[in-house]
Amino acid sequence: MRFSVALLLFFLSACDWNTPAESAKVSFVSLDDEARQLREEFNRSKGKVRLLFIVDPSCSACLRGLDDMNRDLLAQTRDSRLQTYVVHVPVIGAKAKHVQPAATLLPAENVRHYWNESGKVGWTLSNIFGIKNNKGAVYAWDVWLLFGADADWPSDGAPKAQVIMHQLEELEGTEFPPLDTKVFAQKVHAMLSNTKTLDAGQ
Asked: pTM score, two decimals?
């Protein structure tokens, strides 16, 4: 079943299965190499629990991670206090056209998608969030981060991630655990239970 995700996305990209109305719902922002647009949006959503997924939209492991995250968390969580950001980077040959099919795996509300054509933002985010092994910095992709409602992203610093998980060989044996979407979901729900209810209309 899981490999059917990649197969589905292949057909979605090759054939226009989405109606114009459905396609219009899945949009993305072109992200600069310094992640400025992401940082600004992150700070505008202060007060919410925020998730950040960094993926290659043509990578089968990343697609499986998105599908699992939807199944175990986002599809079951209708909470206005939760905001998700997905940064798409071209690690193994992805193009902008791959973003929308991948984005359909996360149909929940409050999900924003970004595309960085140069791929350089992966190094920016690696340095910001301290993604590294004992040899040095590791390019940030196929990593999954959780931030509390109080997290702030200054222009010259980094927000504190409460959880960073991954699906990368380079990070095996580091402080960062491998992705377990069920555990990730538990941590998100625990954080939401300790987060104040947003005011109406927020």
From this structure: 0.86
